[in-house]
Automatic annotation (TrEMBL), chains A, B:
One term under GO cellular component: plasma membrane
Keywords for this protein: Cell inner membrane, Cell membrane, Ion transport, Membrane, Potassium, Potassium transport, Transmembrane, Transmembrane helix, Transport
InterPro entries, A to Z: Cat_transpt, TrkH
Membrane topology: Multi-pass membrane protein
Transmembrane segments: 12-36, 42-61, 73-93, 142-167, 188-208, 248-268, 288-309, 329-345, 357-382, 417-440, 452-476, 488-513
Record flagged with keyword Cell membrane: yes
Subcellular locations according to the entry: Cell inner membrane
GO molecular function, one term: potassium:chloride symporter activity
Name of the protein: TrkH family potassium uptake protein
Length: 515, 515
């Protein structure tokens, strides 16, 4: 074959093969769970064979694969498409519930590996599905979270996608010239931190159970929620999400969500004896400030009662109660800002006002260098600084004044700033178009009545990898009523949103393949 | 007095005095209308005295006023605040209807001079109000439109507000070094075109009446609609807006709305024998394309019937009718894109889907260099070009490639691009905050039930100077039910939106007054 392309497709496929090979190892975990609970291990053994065969086959395509920036783009897009695709096998082989349907299985698997947490399961329970299948569902999020940390810190930031190069300013000081060793080094550091925090979450959740404070936070539940907290995933084996647990568990989950939405590079510095890098960090300070302000606003509205549309018995105890207003206000805002998507109550009982605040909050996103999705705080921080600079420039047209990061004073170069603005513009454009697409599709879907607010929330919940929206896609509901076409479209949104959009769009340009 | 400020407040006030002095001349028009219809001319004579006294007084503050860029910012902000304030006098002296209330009068006057077209009149008719008061209402829009043309083309573009410097690339080739003579020269050219087009609109509207095609397009109505077409104003003395007229009138109004939303500098070139500058212009082409695509989409949805929520008798004839679907689809989209805000039907009968498309369309705006409001097509054009450039840059990280304007190939400098992005970011931020403000305020307003979509539409309709929104603020309704606080807030939105936001914000920064 004559090589006319400027992209080495074989190399990208070969690296993908390696990813699948490593993925196969993780299947021993749900297999073990299945054997422990005397359930069938067949779904996982089939998947194991598939991943090994496909993985080894792809890996052999190229003996010495090279990873230049074009191959990296292709690898990233392929990985987050093929892995979720293979991840459907356990659901399909098990054949229980709504996820026995191929489109539903792909939706659930993509939602897992992208740490979105949107579900098409009609009945979320270990009775309908087995304990091992439900654990596989949580595991996809934990694995996805690992992948995203490396993607953000080591790959996309090197490729300067949508201003992500700003992460390099805060990223571990590992200086490696070539892309492959750099990914390996960074991955090792991040995954260690990720694993330790996961363990901490499991220990705390189960500790509350052992202390008698959380009767239904069993060992199974502790592991399940530990696996979906750190990746800001939000899947829960409980149909009512974290509402199923005691208030003290909800406060503990809030803590781990905040941890999960923070830039992991800052933990790396703290670990190396420089904890002040955390508190001095401009993004971290904005992240805490934003959650404080919006959480306070929602809590106040709940306390006053105007935050609730209806006052059914289940929520009538919130207005006038300081603890309940604060807990539910802050839980939802932390869950949304970190894009985890857990819920401590069904916010479909909220008023239009509080639901709209929630919808707008979904555009914020957690910190860069975490597994959080959506636009992310650092981008808003840079935009806010650019606004101030623009006002200064209007008064002093001749002055040259760079945009700087808060306390460190590092200069952000103009190309990064423009990259950030372009990213936000593309994100919002895709949001607008997709909202119209879902609304138009709903007209031809029997049994689905979709309001403007619901459609908008479904789009930002999937594109921003948040998970639940409002109304029909609320936290205690499911995306099952949508048409197959709409589900495939949202699979696309979860995928492209997770990869910071531009890294996928670039592959669709002719200039990527030519010249 | 020791001059410590870097802003010459006296000079700005002196220029404002001159503006008021000229404004007083325009009062002879409604006075004449009053005398013709044997109505009281007192409201206008009182206003005449007020404007002359205040105008001459302010003018004398500074014998030789200078207009540097800081004074220009102050002058612009003051003018669009004081003129609408003085413009309340006719409503207050006449004392008829809801606009006899001071806050309502200020709302109506600000809505007029900013060419927004949002109304707080409870009953829109020449019976409740006199013919001369209604003509004053149309006249405020015509005068506002004149002001905005000069503001955009000669002032804000010189001050480089929000990327408006891009207008200079298309603006008349008048090269004047100092700001004052430049404003004078540009104003003369623009106003001549503006006046001729206004005359053309009146002649066409009245011509249809004389030809027997439009029985109720009387001379009064022809003048009234002529005065509010060219400034993209949208006020109508008819309570049902342009729905009150025959289909052929609606098609004629569409034509003049398209004319009004086009960059007036292009007409200047056409007049000087270079009409190809119009069809080659990148913004003009995008403007036509955008209206074609969205208008076609809405027309299709109306034709299929899914664009309508309910099918009452009044709209039941639309689905299946090509002419009606096209007319109502395109009329509304042209009215929204040009930010005129006329309506050919009550789009509150539309479905959520079509209403949401309308809401998103409100963010587009007409052309720069016209009296249209909102974000404006040229900004979206530059944003779209920047997106493409960013994708190219991801593939070729080392390449330096400027962003260029369509057929002319003019390079847009990076500072302009960033100014445009910053403007859009500020616009959207203000939109989000204001939507929440209106929703929260509605909770304490008796008799006002505001949905999320209605609140969002009220904000973009005022901030973008569009006029009507959806639901309670729909084209056949009024902003009267809002609280005084909410009305004052929307007065602020119309004012700041009209002045491209940043030119007002800059005055609020300490650095503007110091250093
Ligand atoms: K999530
Ligand atoms: K208007």
């Amino acid at each position: 074959m004559i090589r006319r392309l400027h992209v080495d497709v074989r190399s990208s496929c070969s690296f993908l093969g390696t990813v699948l090979k490593y993925l196969s190892l993780t299947l021993f975990f749900p297999t073990g769970i299945a054997l422990y609970y005397r359930e069938s291990p067949v779904p996982f053994l089939v998947t194991l064979v598939v991943t090994v065969v496909v993985g080894v086959g792809l890996e052999r395509l190229e003996a010495e694969p090279r990873l230049d920036h074009r191959e990296a783009f292709l690898l990233v897009a392929l990985t987050w498409f093929v892995v979720p695709f293979v991840g459907t096998v356990p659901y399909l082989v098990a054949g229980t519930g709504t996820v026995a349907d191929p489109v539903n299985a792909f939706f659930e698997s993509m939602s897992g590996f992208t740490t979105t947490g949107a579900t098409v399961m009609g009945s979320i329970s270990v009775e309908t599905h087995s304990r091992s299948i439900m654990m596989w569902r949580q595991l996809t999020q934990w694995l996805g979270g690992m992948g995203i940390l490396v993607l953000m810190v080591a790959i996309l930031s090197e490729l300067s996608v949508g201003g992500t190069q700003i992460i390099r300013q805060e990223a571990p000081g590992i200086k490696v010239e070539k892309l492959t060793p750099r990914i390996r080094e960074t991955a090792r550091a991040l995954w260690l931190i990720y694993a330790w925090f996961t363990l901490a979450a499991v220990v705390v959740y189960y500790g509350l159970h052992l202390a008698g404070l959380a009767p239904n936070m069993t060992a199974y539940n502790a592991v399940a929620h530990g696996l979906t907290s750190l990746p800001t995933g939000g899947f829960s084996p409980e149909g009512r999400s974290v509402e199923a647990f005691e208030p003290i568990v909800q406060w503990a989950v809030m803590l781990f969500m905040i941890v999960a939405g923070t830039n992991f590079a800052l933990y790396w510095y703290a670990w190396r004896g420089r904890p002040e890098r955390l508190t001095e960090n401009a993004e971290f300070r904005s992240y805490i400030l934003v959650m404080g302000v919006i959480g306070g606003l929602i809590s106040t509205l709940l306390f006053l009662g105007v935050g609730l549309a209806t006052v059914p018995e289940s929520v009538s105890t919130i207005p006038g109660s300081v603890e309940r207003s604060l807990r539910h206000g802050f839980f939802q805002i932390i869950a949304i800002v970190t894009t985890t998507g857990y819920a401590s109550m069904d916010f479909n009982a909220w008023s239009d006002t509080t639901q709209v605040i929630l919808l707008f909050t979904m555009f914020l996103g957690g910190s860069a260098g975490s597994a959080a999705g959506s636009i992310k705080i650092i981008r808003w921080y840079v935009i806010q600084k650019s606004m101030r600079r623009e006002l200064f420039r209007l008064v002093h047209p001749e002055a040259v004044r760079p945009v700087r990061m808060g306390t460190t004073g590092d200069v952000i170069d103009e190309e990064t700033i423009l990259g950030i603005f372009v990213f936000v513009a593309v994100f919002l454009t895709l949001f607008v178009i997709s909202t119209v697409v879902l609304l138009v599709d709903a007209h031809r879907t029997p049994g689905l009545s979709l309001s403007a607010l619901e459609a908008a929330s479904a789009v930002i919940a999937t594109l921003g990898n948040v998970g639940p929206g409002v109304g029909v896609v609320g936290p205690m509901n499911s995306y099952e009523p949508f048409s197959d076409a709409a589900k495939l479209y949202m699979i696309f949104l979860m995928w492209i949103g997770r990869l910071e959009i531009l890294s996928v769009l670039v592959i669709l340009t002719p200039t990527y393949w030519r010249s």
